[in-house]
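Tokens in:
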């Protein structure tokens, strides 16, 4: 999102009145952009820990369920 937002802002495509943007760019830079963007944030530690648990189970030849892991997201 941070790659193309400056161009959209300069061209006046995103003005936060008629058109806005939402994305997974949960960074300080994204929070400082004007006009303000709607951001979706997730706990990166929890995402990494969940992935590490699955990988550990795989390399330990443990049975890994086919369930999806859902990490709660927050709309800011």
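Residues out:
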């Amino acid at each position: 999102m941070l790659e193309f937002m400056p161009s959209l802002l300069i061209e006046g495509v995103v003005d936060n009145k008629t058109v806005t943007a939402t994305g997974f760019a949960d960074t300080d830079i994204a929070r400082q952009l004007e006009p303000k963007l709607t951001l979706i944030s997730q706990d990166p530690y929890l995402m990494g820990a969940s992935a590490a648990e699955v990988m550990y189970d795989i390399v330990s030849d443990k049975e890994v369920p086919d369930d999806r892991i859902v990490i709660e997201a927050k709309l800011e």
